Amino acid sequence: MAGGEPLSLLLLLFALVSLQDVKRKQPWRSRPSSGPTVFMVVMEDDPVISHKSSQKEVMRGEEAQKYKQTTRTKHDIFLDSLLPVGSYKKLYSYTHLINGFALQAKSKETVKILSGAKGVRFIQEDVKMSKMTTYTPRFIGANGVWPLLGGAEKSGAGVVIGMVDTGIDPSNPSFLSTSDQTKPPPSFKGTCQSGDRFPPDSCNGKIVGARWFGRAGQASGEFNATINYASPYDPDGHGSHTASIAAGNFHTPAISRGYNFGHASGVAPGAHLAIYKAAYSFGGYMSDIIAAVDQAVEDGVNIISLSLAPNSITSGPASFLNLLETQLLLATKAGISVVQAAGNGGPDANSIVSFSPWITSVAASTTDRKYNKTIITGNGKVFSCGGLSTSTPGETMYPLALADDVSNGNLTDGSSPSSCQDPNVFIRSLVQGKVIICMFASSSYYGSDYFVGIADTIQKIGAAGVIITDRSSKDVDIEYQPTFPTTIPSAIVINGADADALLDYYDNNLVRDADGTVTTFGATVRILEGRRASYTKEAPVVADFSSRGPDVDNAQMQASDVLKPNVMAPGHQIWGAWSPTSDSMAEFQGESYALLSGTSMATPHVAGVMALIRQRHPKWSPAMVMSAIMTTADITDRSGRPLTARRDEGGAVERATPFDMGAGSVNAARAVDPGLVFDAGYKDYLQFLCAVPGVDDGAVRRAVGAACPSPSRPRRWGSDLNTPSVTVASLVGSRRVDRRVTSVGAENETYMAYVQAPDGVAVRVSPETFAVAPGATATLRIVLNTTAPGNAFSFGEVVLKGDKKHTVRIPLAVYPAAVLGA
């Protein structure tokens, strides 16, 4: 801390992005602190990873353990000598990636004392965390890689994916040990913490390590051991779901509500899972997440998958300098690939919540798998809708009845029985054998409990089935209608013009007496089977909820020279493992598999692809792995049409840009053999941080404990970082951007550069043709010139085509601000 002045705290709210958040999008806004009492303090002393032994190597083994214990003791002595007894409680000592601790302070005076203490480098206030596959491995081409790696069961073998999430259910079939399961690499030193619902044999070859972190949750009073479990067990379901997508066992039946929806496989079925439970049904705290990441790197994971991200920035010069972002930079320095959810704040621009260039940020797309539900009425009309349920028995037409016409009148609270939430208001003799029409208002938000309540009511009253409709709503794409398994024939949701036609048919075939009571139900209907999937071979579409760029570098929403998201993966209606004890989603309570949507689901797809790459290329750096995924991603469908993005739920689609999909839709088959890669290391990222507008050398020193390296030329903003993309948030006149590529092909290859220039920008690449040998590097000079200033970003690409069939695509996102001299 310079001059003894109080540190400016970077306050971030993080969210574990899941299905619920898709329906409750959080706007990007600053939130005032509610006065949390937990703080994270970083000390000046070195952590294990940057402390050098006498042999000038990173400490390992017994030496590292001794240093860790010494560090913990120093923290205790420091606090005891500085703070009054009873004024604080230390929750964690951080020792591996950072040297520091988390403590619960009884008063603000405690923090004031710490902020002026010698040896304290940085203080950040803790913040609350809130919660943000049967087919998708084939959809992204992973099954094409499996034969190269010894078959599906061995794909990812020897690679450990660290899942920082809500834990795991070790009894789920996706995580049981198999005869093909190999041992984790000798470098992995994780352990298995047993506890409630997590017996000692839970770590079985698939799960190779499991720990839980909840001290901040306990300090807050929100942690309830009866509900949240003091063990790595997953009471929520989210962590099991993401883990199964990344590395669930091959060909496991995904059974829900007694129906087999297919055979689920993780993207890397042979990879190992290390579990770091740090989030709960109530959410979580950043100090617990920091502890989990620190332990994961110390244990020796190869990949960290984070389906969590910040929701807002309240202060500070740069989003890249908050404690979790800089800790993940240190994880990258240690050789760990980090993949993170981009957020569920779409389709608004600037809603991205995973900022830093050393992290692979993942957007969510749809797939071409559809569940089509059909209704046939007695007058020959056919309606399409949602609903994963069986058909009405046989080919019989069943009488149709509006809930209001087969009930005893309004409920005690004055609401209409048409909501179908109370079975006691229905006249049993009138409902049996009929398909009941239940109503809801799409103008109001309804959680999944509402629709589950309808299904439960229909089952209790003995009706033949249910149609849920809303006459006032607009037409919504079937793909975005509520979809969950039910054991009764159900159709969800008929709306817009279809609702009008169905209800008109019903009204026109009724006979009522003088009192208005229905005496004859003349309308009839059949509900057809809806649990069998169909595959349209359509292109992936960016999901409406998926967060969009451009990336920002501070709370003033200034665009940065960093492309975010990096890549897109399936995140809409994804099957995965679930915890039967979870009550977070009523429609899957008691089930072992669930269907969820969110960038949380997209993220582990990319973690699985990283495992396949790391198995085939174990010496590649995290930047090389990210590059391979980005430069080989798909930007067109199978017919060559550009990929598209949804701008609202069920609305029209438009051509997708790099701010929607990053470099494109992940293609695992090509990512393992990219031809060329763009590499970057810790020093490159430090140079990047030191060039961030508003950031000085002191801020970087406080954040990461290292000084800014001397630049080889004047520091410029992030467009100089050696990434497989070029983003320029303000192009005034001309800018030269250099990129260095490394050949990872098996033989000499000659590449030619092709340019699609963004509107208002001229692009020149030199050399236009170059040859590169295996392991050799080449430097590309990309010169951008504003030709027509505009008021928005425009997009293009540089494509390097090799004569050995490799294609390397570099997205361009440029804001042509002004022409020099104009």
TrEMBL record:
GO terms for molecular function: serine-type endopeptidase activity. Its main location: secreted. It is found in: Secreted. It holds the Pfam family Inhibitor_I9. The keyword Coiled coil does not apply. GO terms for biological process: proteolysis. Transmembrane segments: none annotated. SUPFAM superfamilies: Subtilisin-like (SSF52743). Residues 720-814 form the Subtilisin-like protease fibronectin type-III domain. Gene3D superfamilies: 2.60.40.2310, 3.50.30.30, Peptidase S8/S53 domain (3.40.50.200). Residues 42-129 form the Inhibitor I9 domain. This is Subtilisin-like protease.
